[in-house]
Amino acid sequence: MSGNAVANRPGFIKLSPADRRDIRVITSQLEATVLEVALSNGHLKVPDNIEEILKDVTAKTIKYHLEFINQFVVPESVDPYKIISWFGFFLDKHLNPTGEPHNDLKRLTLHTMLDRLNETLQKDIGQQLHVNTIQHLFELNCKDGRADDHFGIGMNGTYFAFHSVRDTVERRCATSNCSK
Amino acid sequence: MTDEDFEKLCDEAEEDVCQRVESGELQRSSAPIQNCISRDLRQYIDKLSNQEFFSSEVAAAAERVRRTAGI
User: Where are the domains of chain A?
Assistant: First the structure.
């Protein structure tokens, strides 16, 4: 079955050209930021197969998006918060599979993900999460995959933290004429 | 990753997920979710297609990440 073959399958929601474009640009921005910081720092040990890793992480993110829109019947629209959280989470798992919390690549990946999410929130509703909340989210993300990961938050929890703020502010503004 | 590589990843993911939908492995939720983003964010994402703007945004993000991650 080729990409075109799935186009008109009944009951299947495929990626629209706009979805593909959005996922491409959102993941590219994360990828470019991680590489920009990693490659300009002589102390960070970037894996030789980083290109392969990034490709795999992108593939997983696309697949999760497709599974999500088909499972929850979301017609042809990309949620940047989900894409960023999923990409960041998968990249972290690849670069730091043992979950070592003080790993430089872990800090780089998670902070890039959280920065991107917070900037997206800023562009979306004109507000950001406080630096202390971002630090708290970082700590919760560091718990994932470790012995004490019952304190972890995971990729969907991270996404939902930003989604909740967005939704709350948007609804409040819709009913009170506020300027955000 | 080239644009061609990316398109291939999308096609492969579609094939895989389509098969799982058709086989019934992926169950539909009874409560549809509506994705929603503001016009400002929509415009920002569209603007990222401009290479110059994209690069300046990446440079700014990299600077912030260096600072917050202490790298």
Answer: 11-170
Q: Is some CB atom of chain A closer than 8 A to the CB atom of B48?
A: yes
Instruction: Tell me the three state secondary structure of residue B71.
Output: coil
Token pair for B11: 């096609």
Check CB contact of A147 with chain B, cutoff 8 Å. Answer: no
Residue A168, phi then psi, degrees to nearest 5: -65, -45
Domain that holds residue B19: 3-26+35-69
Determine, for residues B66 and A11 on separate chains, whether the beta-carbon distance falls below 8 Å: no
Q: Which of B32, B36, B40 sits opposite A73 (nearest CB)?
A: B32
What is the number of domains present in chain B? 1
CB contact under 8 A, A20 and B6: yes
Asked if pLDDT for residue A14 goes beyond 70, the answer is: yes
Output the CA torsion B13→B16→B21→B22 (10° steps): 140
The tens digit of pLDDT for each residue in B15-31 reads 999 999 888 888 887 77
Q: How confident is the model at residue A7 (pLDDT cuts 50, 70, 90)?
A: low
ipTM surpasses cut 0.95? no
